[in-house]
Design goal:
Layout (H helix, E strand, L loop, with lengths): L1 E4 L2 E4 L7 E4 L4 E6 L2 E4 L7 E3 L2 E4 L17 H16 L6
Antiparallel strand pairs: 1-2, 3-4, 4-5, 6-7
Length: 93
């Protein structure tokens, strides 16, 4: 890494958990495990307006199956919802 200090360039080796703002992409870069990580956000929860809206991934939810009455349209919609939740990593596969 290089910065400008006292009219000269200064080279500094990155250390674990060092973070920098990458102006060209408007993202943060964090040095982890010997490499730079960009564009990732790590945390335990996302809180908006004092309310937690995203937390840890929930366990898997089984696809609809069985039952006395089979509603194919409802099952198709439920499958699509579960697929979207899995794709976004909100529930286990």
């Amino acid at each position: 890494m290089c910065d400008w200090l006292d009219q000269r360039r200064r080279f500094v080796a990155p250390v674990e958990a060092m973070s920098l703002f990458v102006r060209s992409t408007s993202t943060w870069a964090v040095f982890r495990g010997g490499a730079w990580e960009t564009g990732l956000l790590r945390g335990d929860a996302l809180v908006i307006g004092g309310e937690q809206v995203i937390g840890a991934r929930a366990p898997a939810i089984a696809d609809p199956a069985g039952g006395a009455t089979v509603d194919n349209e409802a099952r198709t919609a439920i499958d699509a919802i579960l697929d979207a939740l899995r794709e976004h990593g909100l529930i286990e596969i």
